[in-house]
Fold 3'-5' exoribonuclease.
Amino acid sequence: MFVRDLYKLPVGAPFSGYFVIEHVEIKRHRTGEPFLRLVLSDKTGTFTALWWKPPKDADLSIFRKGDVVFISGSIEYFNGQLQPKLSEIRVASPGEYNPQKFICETKFPIEEQFTVLLEIIDSVENPYLKRLLESFFYDDKFVEKFLKTPAGKTIHHACIGGLLEHTLGVVEICETVSRRYKSIDRDLLITAAILHDVGKVHEYSVGISIDRTTEGILLGHLYMSCEMVAFKIAEIPDFPKSLKTKLLHCILSHHGEYEHGSPKKPKTLEAVTLAYADALDSRVKGFEEFVERELGSGKGWTKRHFAFEVPIFFDGEIKYGEEDGKEESSNL
Amino acid sequence: MFVRDLYKLPVGAPFSGYFVIEHVEIKRHRTGEPFLRLVLSDKTGTFTALWWKPPKDADLSIFRKGDVVFISGSIEYFNGQLQPKLSEIRVASPGEYNPQKFICETKFPIEEQFTVLLEIIDSVENPYLKRLLESFFYDDKFVEKFLKTPAGKTIHHACIGGLLEHTLGVVEICETVSRRYKSIDRDLLITAAILHDVGKVHEYSVGISIDRTTEGILLGHLYMSCEMVAFKIAEIPDFPKSLKTKLLHCILSHHGEYEHGSPKKPKTLEAVTLAYADALDSRVKGFEEFVERELGSGKGWTKRHFAFEVPIFFDGEIKYGEEDGKEESSNL
Amino acid sequence: MFVRDLYKLPVGAPFSGYFVIEHVEIKRHRTGEPFLRLVLSDKTGTFTALWWKPPKDADLSIFRKGDVVFISGSIEYFNGQLQPKLSEIRVASPGEYNPQKFICETKFPIEEQFTVLLEIIDSVENPYLKRLLESFFYDDKFVEKFLKTPAGKTIHHACIGGLLEHTLGVVEICETVSRRYKSIDRDLLITAAILHDVGKVHEYSVGISIDRTTEGILLGHLYMSCEMVAFKIAEIPDFPKSLKTKLLHCILSHHGEYEHGSPKKPKTLEAVTLAYADALDSRVKGFEEFVERELGSGKGWTKRHFAFEVPIFFDGEIKYGEEDGKEESSNL
Amino acid sequence: MFVRDLYKLPVGAPFSGYFVIEHVEIKRHRTGEPFLRLVLSDKTGTFTALWWKPPKDADLSIFRKGDVVFISGSIEYFNGQLQPKLSEIRVASPGEYNPQKFICETKFPIEEQFTVLLEIIDSVENPYLKRLLESFFYDDKFVEKFLKTPAGKTIHHACIGGLLEHTLGVVEICETVSRRYKSIDRDLLITAAILHDVGKVHEYSVGISIDRTTEGILLGHLYMSCEMVAFKIAEIPDFPKSLKTKLLHCILSHHGEYEHGSPKKPKTLEAVTLAYADALDSRVKGFEEFVERELGSGKGWTKRHFAFEVPIFFDGEIKYGEEDGKEESSNL
Amino acid sequence: MFVRDLYKLPVGAPFSGYFVIEHVEIKRHRTGEPFLRLVLSDKTGTFTALWWKPPKDADLSIFRKGDVVFISGSIEYFNGQLQPKLSEIRVASPGEYNPQKFICETKFPIEEQFTVLLEIIDSVENPYLKRLLESFFYDDKFVEKFLKTPAGKTIHHACIGGLLEHTLGVVEICETVSRRYKSIDRDLLITAAILHDVGKVHEYSVGISIDRTTEGILLGHLYMSCEMVAFKIAEIPDFPKSLKTKLLHCILSHHGEYEHGSPKKPKTLEAVTLAYADALDSRVKGFEEFVERELGSGKGWTKRHFAFEVPIFFDGEIKYGEEDGKEESSNL
Amino acid sequence: MFVRDLYKLPVGAPFSGYFVIEHVEIKRHRTGEPFLRLVLSDKTGTFTALWWKPPKDADLSIFRKGDVVFISGSIEYFNGQLQPKLSEIRVASPGEYNPQKFICETKFPIEEQFTVLLEIIDSVENPYLKRLLESFFYDDKFVEKFLKTPAGKTIHHACIGGLLEHTLGVVEICETVSRRYKSIDRDLLITAAILHDVGKVHEYSVGISIDRTTEGILLGHLYMSCEMVAFKIAEIPDFPKSLKTKLLHCILSHHGEYEHGSPKKPKTLEAVTLAYADALDSRVKGFEEFVERELGSGKGWTKRHFAFEVPIFFDGEIKYGEEDGKEESSNL
């Protein structure tokens, strides 16, 4: 049962389900008896619940932020907010629940999209770049992480598979531009586009929610992507030094401006193309995600976006093409 | 004879040709006799020439900045700079010379590209938008101006046909993005992409060189494009007011940021897509043009670009695809 | 009865009056019975009220944000906040209440001020500019809207008649400056000053509160003022093109800087004068309004102003000259 | 004879006059003989002159930047630039020439304007502020300096009397605003307006040209004005401390923004009014001066202004009202 | 008893102690009876308390923000927050409580540190600068204030003695730099370092909490420090004017950038050294204080710092060297 | 013979010496005969020379930018500039001249300073950090490069040994700060200080002049330092991952702000200390170098510094302590 479905139940109705603990506090009745106040969530929303009368001998300290718990209880409201009283709560075992209940996943089919990516890699003719790409994408361990990584925590592509989806979005734009501008080194551009965000596999940790790692906050994916690429290149014999420099420059400068965290501004045709293609794909997706979250299926104005610094107007319909039909597993 | 070819002639060699006056001064010999000092150019370069001994009764004041003149003389150098002495100079009649000698032209074939544009217009399904587009592009007088207009004076697409070329570049990227993001109103986006710079037909005057008009400097093409579109819409019965608002918003916000001269930041999916697509196409082209101008067929670093604020590194080859073969008329 | 007067009543006292609904929620008692929680306001303040025991068959969904309601009940406090319990609530009919109870009005007498404006228009000697001004200010429909429009939603002149008041404030400063600087085209400057914000009649919707329209947020009054002027000019035979350009430039650039939403910076004597006069009048008024709202009749520091980014210090007295005596209608 | 008149003489014509040395270099003929190359100017322009054949025993080192010299010679041109050859040059004695030939003077009559200022001081009712103003403007030594000081070196009011002229311009605007906004403490505002730039008497040194002093560059007139006012206040018994604080705040914040060199942003009604009035008067005057210098009596576009960062368009006529008739002394 | 210790008591336990009133409200029971809601604090934290049943004849209006009160009552919680009910409350007399309970004090021993400062003053060889320093630091009244003043309200050294501690921190860095860079005028630099923040004795008022004065907010310590130094210099015969200018420049420019409130950027070796030394010492201390406040003895990430605009990572241990052992008085 | 000494010779005097070619052009006499125009320099200045009459069969194309040439000729001036005519010119062999003639060298004795650095490394107690430092500074090849590398091309420490000098300057400040702030991890800070700029060994190429490499411009020393450190760490068994992250963060963030090219802002005590210490040392040195270059042994104002955006005032004496006595080799 999703959070958004709880709201549809009448007051007093019984319910049960799996939720993740966002916040937990042991509080006390006036009598001094302890009780539990929890903020619980899944990917569809958040609510507060009270475990009003735990058994006398219950150890309330075992519940920690981030745990998935199974609860049952009945629907109540306090001050207009859903605030059920629980009759039961226990920490769930990993196998019991579907992790997809807690973190959203790209609307695009991951396997198909990965196949598309491998075909693009196959189209790269420069043997050093192709070998470099293969050293990443034929490494099962890396691929497993890559396919699960989001492209962001809140701003854009903030879901499992988001990095893959965003990578392909950027590659598509780069292909379009390189068809028109023949002076561009297409293989270099496409390689840079595919690798530009690989550091995000270490920048984000994806469990029941998306978090930025300490390493991610202190170093950032621009640097981490470059370091990963530099170590891979070190294993490829005779990889041309100037090719390495140009490729790392594309990655290092792909945020385009100093104030967006690029230590270098783009200074080559390929770097400038990548930087704008990245900005375009992430901004459009960021707009779309924000509209969907804020307006649902409604129309009109969202509130002001915290990063884009504008409210967004939308009077159309959120659509995902043929992939739209993909269903969420119903037995969560 | 192009300026760049004059440099290949030996000192003392005779030459003749058509050039435009960039600067003219009547100066005096120590004897008090007047002579003429001219800065002349065509699209391949600039040089200084002296008309050292004009006939006694010559009216030197008839030569004005912007005139095309026919000159003959012989090659001389002063202080390492080409500085021929002229034996003859006269103002040329319009029919005598090929205007293309003075202002560069898009490398893409204008007619073919215009056909592509008409096909895109034909693909627009929204009847109001299609009619709006037709009111521009089936108006011969507008089209004649549009096809001649550059997209800029110095930064990008600064040549005859540049506006058409840039418009198609932006449309291509928008098509790519709208195929991926189905929530975008594709007809609105494509219409905005086609019309976003139409005000440039009044912002630039294209004669023998490209200049910005007083109107262009005081009002800018963002406003002028919107005014043009607003007047055309006023003639289309029942054009929906909200559609007009959304379309004008795309045009008005397409520079993306206040500091780039947009009075509004993009606040719709279509506006944000257009703004980034415009930035991407003009920046890549601007890089390419600068590399070509600064490095010719060489490799390495350009000087710092005055607007992009970086030097550009290029070690590839400037290429224009199949259209590359298009020849400059040889009988200039 | 104004909100600020409710606070003066003792707990338990009965009261009644007209208020506008800022927020409304249907909530439920623990028993499942619905009740109504409302946030109500007039121009003097805001409070929460509960309709604790509506009749069984009452349709609670008829109350909507923006409705004016008549309520009666008795004064109660919850957690130190006024929170009366209502015994009656019904939607009021338009004729029942005085709309001025809900939105503040300029302290200056509107009719007198409008007469001053007409006299200034009469003093314009340039026939094209005079005719242009008359086409706006002898159009009853436009004038009716103009006189009701505020100059802002929160920052300055945020009240009925605020646009007129601000327009005259700017005109006064422009007159002072044009008397000293004879090189200024006084007629052009005064015309621009009068028309610079006319687009605000479409940017703001004034009902029971001031709101920005979708058109206003997407296009802004700079553009909308220009478009309105351009259409009016199109109807005046032989209006000089360069005069139109200079006038539109003044309007388009009157926010002075790109980051304040002007697509062009002022480039003429008249434009630069208008931009600074506009900034001066709106900033002073903004300071005064903020001081009045924050300090009432007190002295000392306001909190930090959200837009000016400073707190304001005031140890004087808010005064409005002779117009100060103007009374609020007492039969609200 | 003014520099601008030299240009009207025929080649070879004799001339003589007083000019100031902007730059001087002792150079050598190929024979090793020394000669003098000078850049000379008065307030109407600049030219280069050669003292080609000084007497054998001449001490060329006595000529220094800033000296006024008397020269005679004949008109010659080199490379289109005026470059007369001198037959005589000697350092002029102070009494010989009219200093007004070298530095421009306000077009407004200084004595009349000063009388206006004294009348305004007389209208101040607050006894402490009046006494403070009198301590400055009834001090003959200060007044003598004040009347000679410019308001700037290059940007606005860069002429003798410019500080007086600018001060009155700012006062006029402040009077206009304080008539409308009665909450303003008019006496405080007018006092601040009169004193806001007094530190400029130490920031600029006015001799034959305007220079910024070392003290001026290291401390600036904002600080120096405040220090001067603070020392004067220290001599007035019982001057209220809070009045001092509010007055100094107006002066210290009158550049409005940190990036314009104000250590504090305006935080009172009077301070914000002064800051915008100062900006308005100096910007309009700066535009006018630039137009006059760049276009003379012509029309059209100036080059880009180095500080305002725009070119300026002007198609009117530079005028100074009745004072316009004031003549420059013809026997310079 | 400190606030942080109250949390360790069981529900229902009695307690008593001295606390400062941060906020006070007279509220009413449903019956109309008044009661008192207080927010109380000391330097270790904040809590809410209710005086639920004051005596009938109690004058509740005598309790004001800023008063220190003695309270007794018993521990209760409301909604998880400490909210004791009081049985007694009275305003405390100044002698009753230790003021150090309410405002933190530098961890360094003030007297020892002041001795160090006097030794540094003694090491200054320039007689004018030495005399200037002595005019401040041998003035008992000034010294008493100086030793109590914090260097900031929230960002760095926000405690009694903080100004002394910060001054020495800056002096130490300046000494290190002046040993390496011999071109620096060491006496000037050290004098400027010692005096750079003296205006803070008027910018902050230190009672039971630290507040900025109206004078401090309107003028700032940069200006106030300069004015204080200027008046002291005026009393020293023959103090060289250029030395005064250079010293005031160091003080006036020590925030380094316009946007940090310096009206001048550093333009001498001494000024630039001081500005960076000040930035270094205050930033490091600001980081340390924030880490200590946010993490206590924990490790990991703080929340985002409101001024530095980053979260801070710390996995070490907060230490204060030998001075670390200094105990807080236990009989508070 | 240094360039600055050429100016002391009389016109016509013969001279000879070694200089580096900054610019070379083959030009032609009116007769068509080629001649050579060269811009030559050493570390004391720049001048233009003409090889007016090369032998008929001379191959002028062998002279290239960057070559050191031996020339002889006689002193001439043209237009006030030194412009000798050459009688002889030939490319010099590497052994012939002292390279120190062309690029300045730190005033501090390199060997002594390097010994100091090794002692500091020895004082590091953390075994991983010590081993890391040793892996750099006990690698002879690296050390050789390191000791020759400047810390900049123009802004600060732009001389051989400048990197060593700057590194020690930063370390000294960090030691001072870490003695006061015990919470700082001193070993981490000192290690970061020593390694923060090691990437400059690849960013600058030092031959006869200092140049930035293509790799340096495209990637920058922040990234390159990190990559170098990351590869060295990879060879140290069990180097703690969190220590690596914190160290790389210090290096990556040491420019302090995005706009100075740091992809991350400092987020730890050590990183923030390093960033400010680096800024302090480089700014002071940059001021000193600029004063010395612009004023020589004079006093007063320099011109505006292109990067610091201020002119600098200096009325003291440039001094280098005991090391000052170090002589430039006299047999250059």
